[in-house]
Amino acid sequence: MFGKIMYIGESEAHVENLIKDANAADLMNVNVIFEDSRGCILGEVQEINSDVIKIRFLGEYINGKYVNGVLRKPLLSSKIRMITKNELTELVGTYSASSFVLGESAIYKGFNIYPSINSLFSNHLAIFGNSGSGKSCGVARIVQNLFSSMYQVQYNANIFIFDAFGEYKNAFGKLNEINSNYSYKFITSNPHDENDNLLKIPVCLLTLDDMALLLQANNHAQLPIIENMIKLAKIFSTNTEEAKDYKNHLIAKALLAVLFSNETISSKKNEIFTIIEVCNTPEFNFDTVIPGLGYTRTFSECFEIDSNGNFGESVLITNYILSKLNDNLDSIKAPDYANYSIKDLASSLEFTLISEGFLHNQNLHDDAVILRVRLNGIINSRLNDYFSDELINIPDYIKSLIDNNGKKAQIININLEDVDDIYAKVFVKIFSRILFDYAKSSEKRASMPFHLFLEEAHRYIQKDNDTFLLGYNIFDRIAKEGRKYGVILDIISQRPVELSDTVISQCSNFLIFKMNHPVDVDYIRKMVPNISDDVVEKQKTLQSGTCLGFGSAFKIPLIVKLKMPDPMPKSGNCDVVSIWNGNINISHTSSVSVQTQPVVEETKQSFITQQGIKEVNNQPIVMSETTQPVVEEIKPSFITPQNMGVVDNKLDSSTSSIVMPETTNPTPVTVQNTNIEQTPNNQVVSQPSNVINFGVSTNNQPISPMPATDTISPIPEVMPGDNNGNTPPTFM
User: Fold this and answer.
1) Residue 523: pLDDT band by 50, 70, 90 thresholds?
2) What is the DSSP letter of 99?
3) Residue 653: its pLDDT value, please?
4) In which domain, by residue range, is 464 found?
5) Same domain, 218 and 192
6) Cα dihedral sign for 271, 275, 277, 280?
7) Of 256-265, 556-565, 655-664, which gets the smallest average pLDDT?
């Protein structure tokens, strides 16, 4: 298989290729060992040509433990062999109380991959891939596997899924069937859905930054307006005598400013009446009685213009206004928490509008009016349904989020399907900020971890255009500081190039599904530290439902084949055929399919059924080298480490046997004695006889690989379990 070492470089070695046939391609991405008296060096087959096999150095085995990086290079005389079962298990991990099954190795048949839970979920995680590459199904499966672990009991998990399209309810709705103490909570953005919890954010918890986002503030001048609006809403909500006097004080100041301005008398009257119309109290309204010496006038009567072009009762009204001034009230402080609504904010904004500094400054006034329009737009739309006037602190609010009918919910699914992009971004940021603030205030740091799964993360974690307003982007801050407080980002996106550079750079683990766009691929290459071009290139050829995993939770980059989630998320494609044919039972097929039909060379009357590839016209159908065949669920007959591999041209049967990988280039396959019929409705019916399944002989016994020329079987789907055959409970 491997000849002598011909060249040793800084990062790779060139080895003589002794395999001259097509099966040499089966060695791609396979791990090999350079062994000599000094120890063992792990390599990966990177390139194969007719004469030379290029092998990239990955790390060393020291006392049986793998260490990343190579301090010394192999000798020219080093022996080259395939990796053994024990060596491979050291790389992919074993099933234990501190690990979970991520998926199956796409290279090594029957070997599951078990990352450390702490390594994967104590650090920020990025999941990237094209639409249809398997991201949503992959996320659903990963979370399902976490809760189906036979070692772990995730009672204290706090997983918040911000669901852009309402995909995950079906995947996690039966969480309690795994364990009756598990609970799943669905929070909907549809006000008409009476069966679920409606999304509600207490207005009292909104900060200046939150309100700036909500009102889409776009310059710095708007920030003090918003700040004053919140302050006034808090003060007015107390409904104390002091608060009432403060309202009158603000009105009086605004009226005096108009009275002593240089405007025309008619302009003054119009402006004064506008103030009273939008900001009025029992002491200041059109019908308020103003007492004089032996007579009275209403507020509006005081501003009647006489024949001289003056207000008829200017002295009377001026003295009355002056009596309501109290400069001491300018130092009044707002309470930390107050019970007020979005509508109360609108009222306090009007008082802000009449305040000195905004009234006669056209630019400031225009900025304030824009905020008024946006705030009224929220009040007069269904967005108003998402805000409550409940007086609650952050700890109690988080407790209410996690509580699900008296039980603690481990998964909180916030569905934002009915919210447009602008406000979905706002809500996600507000929730994330509240969770982060709570985590920071906890007496014991990181004692209550929160995992924030952000589906379609490019909608929220952008190269942010509102950073200059807020002073920081909340996700940038969580990315840099969240880990030490136990707030972990799990970002899922098909467009990593649109994401914040800061957030990406702080991610320690990556699951990369297939991505084709060169801009995104190049972005990953630039942003992810310590990643080689070879690793980046691997993801381009991945099948749907398969990802490339690398980072702190992985000892080496691994190609992971994820089992389909059960139940599935609602992330499928439209069944166009059913719809076009007028089928009223419109169904959706999954956008992720691990099992795909092979490409068949052009042949007359060629049919493919789920039973396998058929012989037609006594000629075998030859599959294209570009795809893998459909693999039916078969008896679990795998090529195990105990019966596979060759050492020094002898079959090795020891427990530390040489491990051979799955083939990536299928060879021609025929199936004999197959009868093909057509039903009256032109549906193809296959009636196989003596079907030869991939990887299984005619007597259903495992096929052991032979040296060099033997065909390696594709991987059938396997249940999650450790690499010793133990199987955990499944998520149903």
Assistant:
1) confident
2) B
3) 37
4) 103-196+405-561
5) no
6) negative
7) 655-664
Helices 362-379, 342-353: inter-axial angle, 10-degree rounding:
160
Q: Which residue has 């194969």 as its token pair? A: 48
**Amino acid (1-letter code) at residue 399:** K
Handedness of CA 69, 72, 75, 79 (dihedral sign): negative
- Establish whether the linkage from the previous residue to 569 is cis, with ω within 30° of 0: no
Give the 3-state secondary structure of residue 33: strand
> Does the pLDDT of residue 293 top 50, yes or no?
yes
Same domain assignment for residues 531 and 454: yes
Cβ–Cβ < 8 Å for 716, 723: no
Amino acid type, 26: D
Identify the CA nearest to 534 among candidates 551, 548, 554, 547.
Answer: 548
> H or E element: which one contains 678?
strand 675-678
Residues 192 and 216 in one domain: no
What phi, psi does 581 have (nearest 5°)?
-85, 0
CATH number at residue 47: 2.40.30
> How far is it, in rounded angstroms, from Cα 354 to Cα 247?
11
Structure tokens at 518: 């060169």
How many Cβ atoms sit within 10 Å of the Cβ of residue 380? 9
Give 294-338 pLDDT, tens digit per residue: 899 999 999 999 988 999 999 999 999 999 999 999 999 999 889
> Would you say the C-alpha torsion 293, 297, 300, 303 has a positive or negative sign?
negative
The residues with which 298 forms a beta bridge, in sequence order, are 289
SS3 for 559-574, per residue? Answer: EEECCCCCCCCCCCEE
d(CA 705, CA 718): 20
On whether the CB atoms of residues 126 and 507 are closer than 8 A, the answer is yes
Lowest mean pLDDT among 177-181, 439-443, 493-497, 712-716: 712-716
Residues 362 and 478 in one domain: no
> Which residues lie closer than 8 Å to 249 by C-beta, 6 or more apart?
324, 325, 326, 329, 330
pTM of this structure = 0.77
| Adjacent-strand bridge partners of 574 | 588
**Same domain for 144 and 20:** no
Rg (the chain; Cα; Å): 35
Cis peptide before 202 (omega within 30 of 0): no
Mean of the per-residue pLDDT values of the chain? 80
DSSP SS3 for 203? helix
Residues in Cβ contact with 51 at an 8 Å cutoff, skipping those fewer than 6 apart: 16, 17
Taking the C-alpha atoms of residue 184 and residue 2, their distance in angstroms, rounded to an integer, is 53
